[in-house]
Amino acid sequence: MSTQVEHSNLHPSALSSHPLIGAREVAKIYRMGQTEVAALDHVSMGVDEGEFVAIQGTSGSGKSTLLNLLGGLDRPTSGEVIFDGRSLAPFSKKEMARYRRRSVGMIFQGFNLIMTMTAVENVRLALAFGGLRGRERDARAEELLARVGLEGRLDHRPAELSGGEQQRVSIARALANRPRVLLADEPTGNLDSTRAHEILGLLRAMVDRDRLTVIMVTHDQELAASFADRIIFMKDGKIIERNAEVRSN
Amino acid sequence: MPFLDILQLSLRNLREAKLRATLTTMGVIVGVAVIVTMVSFGLGLQRNTVERFKALDLFNELTVYGQSVANLAMSRSGGNQNTNRVDENGRRQRPLLPNSKPATRILDEAAVAEIETIPGVVYVEPVIVFTPFVRSNGRVFTELVAGASVPNESSRFKEFAAGSMISSSDAAEVVVTEQWTQSFGYEKPADALGKTLEFLAPPEKKKDEREEEKDSGASFFGIPLDEEESGEDAGKDALVARSFRIVGVLKEQKGQQGGGFRGLTANASIFVSLKAARDWTTEYRNPMTEVALELARSQGAIDEKQAEGFVSATVRVTDPVVLTNVRTRLTELGFQSFSIMDQLEQLRTVFLIINATLGLLGGISLLVASFGIANTMIMSILERTREIGIMKAIGAEDGEIRLIFFVEAAVIGFVGGVIGVLTAWGIDGLSNRLAYRYILKPQNASYVDFFYIPSYLWLGAIAFAVLVSIIAALYPASRAARIDPVKALRHD
Ligand SMILES: Nc1ncnc2c1ncn2[C@@H]1O[C@H](COP(=O)(O)OP(=O)(O)OP(=O)(O)O)[C@@H](O)[C@H]1O
Ligand SMILES: [Mg+2]
């Protein structure tokens, strides 16, 4: 796709000293009784607006931990997460919730949809937390689901949808309140290769068209290489290789 | 998030766990039903007791006392104010009035008019009582006669066994009691209607009046005045002084022994219009009163023109609520007053204790229900941990999560409260009916509503149920709000 090439050409990490989202000397230590587990060991990284970055690494290397910190679901033991030039460290709980609601959207391997709600209700819930109401909310929920190709599945419950469809619902939900960053933790982990390509194609298109920023954790080298602009490799809570440019084609 | 969305979420959560929500609500229903049934029984008991008094006009009537001339005269001549004054029949002249200053003003016509202007006063009826010889149906006895305002809204003149009230204050008509008709040999109350009733007075000395008025206290707490004199020698040569027509026979109050008094006025057996009573007492003055008046005048306690006034008057008020205000005003004006309300304060305290105890018993059952609510909430939070994590991940604030659970609890409390009140209402109705059918009716008693559910009781019970439910949800809700989304979302 031409857009992808175009986009890679003006790769921002080289140009910009001001990434949209990043971590500065972030450490996360879990205490288990006597022993301490350093899930993240002073990690610094940054992702620019409109960039699609994949994070790879062995199991237990701290990928999910990093993503959760970037998504404001958790706070680092030391160091700080930076979004749009501002540190999240001084944020109150309420401000953190607002950050999760407005600035970032998250999708997960297990989809994490509310099982008792239909597709459109799941999306509406996110819109409701975002403060949208009435007809405007209904219209936007349907529009979001149409964007991920689910206009025919509005009233299906997650159990009545395929894995790929469920993940699309969760993408629609993640994008509900127009976040600037989408954080995805193994979004294709439960999907077969064809579905995985469909989903990542969808994300890629959003990056290219809407300058969405995507940070995706994945195990899959092939997927990372074909959809991400850049791959970050992690091991034992550290970043071991950060500028693997993969999409210069 | 708008509150309507919170409410929707809460209702959805309850729908998702219908059985559990229903069982929890049952606990609240039982608690509220017990509270409302218990307290409504206590309040019913109180109401039935108080209504009884109210029906007797004990709450809308008070007695006002003026300064008596006899008292004035004696005090001036160094007589002891505190002597227990005794009238010629040996009865104490007035009841002891605790916490009440003695009257310093004479209760005359002007005073009556002034009292009538006090806000809340319907009318003032001076107590005029006398005991003339009375002849009717060929029999003669001395009877206690009282003056009554015409028309009269006192409950004393509400029920007639036959006939009706005196038509106007100028009419030469009387109303008698059922008992009177018996002592005068009428077979049925109706037989007395239209018959003549005569007051007798000695022909040669018109001014011999048998007795000046008695004060109400004596006749009301004392023995009714129908000491009968044997009809043979008394009144043989007497001349008819006044002649009346019997127009009404008062119905004897059921369930009231001893003839039964109504209101605070004297227990007379014959009632004439106030005007007729006044005419009689001016014409046949009590010599003792004359003496007292002369004494008072000569000592300058009252001036020449001033009359002795009434000993007491019955004041009818619009509402028991204004009673205290009217009494305060009367004291300011220099009169002494008496009301049964004072005696009832004690009764109120007793009922307060009864109701509090009954409410407490109900409260305990609601407390038990509140543990049920807390348990249900915690269970549902454990079940919905992931869901709460998701909500937090998509931006729910802790406060919003907490509110969802509070609203859930409040809905349980509200629904339980409403159904509980309805249940109590049903129980009350059923109990009344069963009591009537198996206890009252076999004894020929009339239907009694044993319960009373005032609006503050049912509104309060529902509010209380909601409050208790929210308190029960305090811990579960804060626990839900504290759920760590990272842990909640970790996939298995
Ligand atoms: N809540 C926790 N308590 C204790 N240790 C934790 C907790 N969460 C993560 N860890 C530890 O932190 C390290 C990093 O975990 P993390 O989930 O970030 O790994 P990951 O790279 O996502 O692994 P995977 O590829 O298997 O998902 C692991 O050793 C894990 O055991
Ligand atoms: Mg992981």
Short description:
Helices cover 37% and strands 27% of the residues of chain A.
Describe it.
The complex is a heterodimer of chains A (249) and B (492). Chain A is of the alpha/beta class. Chain A is built from nine helices and ten strands. Chain B is an alpha+beta fold and 492 residues long. Chain B has three domains: 3-54 and 346-490, no CATH class; 61-129 and 284-318, no CATH class; 133-214 and 228-276, no CATH class. Chain B contains 15 helices and 13 strands. Chain B has helices spanning 3-16, 18-55, 69-76, 109-116, 178-183, 189-192, 216-221, 274-283, 287-298, 323-333, 341-383, 385-393, 398-440, 455-481, 485-489, and strands spanning 61-65, 121-126, 129-130, 133-136, 139-142, 145-148, 160-163, 173-177, 196-201, 239-250, 270-273, 312-317, 336-338. In chain B, the strands form two sheets. In chain B, strands 3, 4, 5, 6, 7, 8, 9, 10 and 11 form a nine-stranded mixed β-sheet that branches. In chain B, strands 2-12-1-13 form a four-stranded antiparallel β-sheet, covered by helices on one side. In chain B, strand 4 and strand 5 (139-142) form a beta hairpin. Classes of the chains: A alpha/beta (249), B alpha+beta (492). At the A-B interface, helix 4, strand 6 and helix 5 of A face helix 1, helix 12, helix 13 and helix 15 of B. The site of adenosine-5'-triphosphate has 12 residues of chain A, from strand 1, strand 2 and helix 3.
